[in-house]
Each structure stands twice: as structure tokens, then as C-alpha cells.
Amino acid sequence: MDDFAKALEQHDYQFQKGQVVRGKVFQYESDGAYVDIGGKSAAFVPLNEASLKSVTNLSEVLPLHEEQDFVIIKEQDADGQVTVSHRQLEINQIWQRLAEMQESSQSLPARVTGVNKGGVTVNVQGLRGFIPRSHLVERDDLEALKGQTLSVTFLEVDRSNNKLVLSNRLATRSASFSQLEPGQLVEGKITGIKPFGIFVDLDGVSGLLHIKQVSQKYIESLEALFQVGQTIKAVIIDLDEGKGRISLSTRVLENYPGEMLENMNEVIENAEARASKIRSTISDS
Questions:
Q1: Helices (H) and strands (E) in the chain, counts
Q2: How crowded is residue 45: how many other Cβ atoms within 10 Å of its Cβ?
Q3: CA within 13 Å, CB half, 204
Q4: Are strands 205-210 and 245-249 parallel, antiparallel or unpaired?
Q5: CA 203 – CA 166 distance, rounded (Å)
Q6: CB atoms inside a 10 Å sphere around CB 50
Q7: How far is the C-alpha of 121 from the C-alpha of 104, rounded, in Å?
Q8: What are the pLDDT digits (tens) for 30-58?
Q9: Residues 6 or more apart whose Cβ sits within 8 Å of residue 276
Q10: What's the mean pLDDT when you consider all of the chain?
């Protein structure tokens, strides 16, 4: 027995900050709880480190004599006691889960909690994230976004710097892309006219109708044919979600070269019937 006691005394419990330990809560205090983690002295978990959510009753989150994992946040003091946290462990697990979601390009909901000049702050599964203004779908009235839940995807997940940057615009675009396919007839409003083509808004995502895809006949000026705000129907001929590119065509709706130039209204009015005829051809290609 003497040898056993000496062996216990000589045993070196090297608990280090950041180490995950397993233990059981055996005593509650007004400011926290004592945890048996197998050391010379009990570990202590402060009340504000018991859980990520607000705690009023410790027994609800840390039941007596139930084994749980904790992470050491403060190394041994003079009495050999370490300070542990269950909250930090939950945070680490959330960061890991978000990193995995980023790898698989998943979207998730985030509630807007604040506004600043650069964008909005959000709550993501208990963590604080940031959406830059340029990555918001609604960027004119940021104050109106407070309290709203937005669909977001990840731009940066950096646990070491507590940096979580998200995009509402890309998540919305991804959702829109999932509803589109080559050969599909879509309707949208023209948002811009350039010498090389026209940009069409398709429920939050932008499609490009290249000048060569407007008609089978040569076009001298797109501005002479279209105007911003005009509603147009076109067929999707190519999708590239990675680049956010949607290629459109109205030339495939023509019954003869130049019909879009001579009788655009008729082409658009009969677009559904015309598109159904060529849908299978585009899908196969």
C-alpha cells in the first residue's frame, strides 16, 4: 500500500491548455461546478463556460455524475486545479462543422444581428459571422435586414483568427442555379446592354444573351433592338455555376434567320411552343 501511495504521489498529471479531458461534475457552486477529471485536484468549470447558450440551471447542461468532455482553458494553479470549459468545446465543434460545410459548398441560415458600414453581422449556430455589403442581395437598406434570417454560404472559415465571412448573394445564386437547366425557357428583365450582348436578370441571377445568340442574322446595334427594363424570354444554352455564368439564346427560337430583328414580338409570344421543340436537342448537346 505504501508503494501504491508513493506511485500516486509521483504520478505527473500534465494538463495543458487546449487539451480535451473527460470528467464528471460532482458539485455545484453559485459561480460554476467542480469536475472530476482524474487529477490530483478537481477541475472547475465557471458558469459562463458551461454552455454556448445562456445557463440559469447548471444541472440542465451539466448533470451530476454524467461523463462529458471538457477543454482546458487555464492550466493548473498552485493547488493543481485547472479551469475547464464545455462552451469552448461546443464552439470548436461548430467551427469544425462549418469547415466541413464549406468544403461541401453547403448553405445554411443566419440571423442578422447588427449593421455597419461594410455590411452586416450575423449569428451562425451561435458564432458571430460577417456578410460584406457586396455579398448581400439587398444592399440598399441594411437596417431593414436586422432580425431577418438570410440564406448564406461560406467565403472564409478561419478558426485561428475567429474569422467567419459569408455570402448571401452566392447562396441565393446557388439556389437559383439549382432550378435551372440547359434547354429551359426563362423570362427576365434586361438590366444592361453592352456591344457584345445584353444582361438579363433571372430572379436574382444574371444571364448573358450574347450578340451572336440573339439572331441567326448579323446585328449591327443591340441598343437599336432592346432597352433596359424590357422583359424578354430566352433559352438557356449553357450553365456554369462555378463562374456564375448563364448563357442565353433567342436565335434558337427563330423559324428563319433574322426573325428576331423583323418580328421580335411574335418570337417572344410563341417562345414556349418553339422552346419545347428544341429543348431535347439542347439538353442532348
A1: 7, 15
A2: 26
A3: 18
A4: parallel
A5: 21
A6: 23
A7: 23
A8: 999 999 998 777 899 999 999 988 888 99
A9: none
A10: 88
106-174, which class in CATH? mainly beta
- The C-alpha torsion from 42 through 48 and 51 to 54, rounded to 10°, is 150
- DSSP conformational letter for 162: T
- Please state which architecture CATH assigns to domain 19-104: Beta Barrel (2.40)
162 — alpha (psi -120 to 50), left (phi > 0) or beta? left
* CA gap 28, 26 in Å, rounded: 7
- Burial of residue 255 (CB within 10 Å: 0-12, 13-18, 19+) is exposed
Residues facing 7 on adjacent strands = none
Backbone angles phi, psi at 148, to 5 degrees: -80, 155
Among 149-153, 195-199, 220-224, 241-245, where is mean pLDDT lowest? 241-245
Residue-range domain boundaries for the chain: 19-104, 106-174, 179-284
CATH class of 179-284: mainly beta
DSSP tag of 255: S
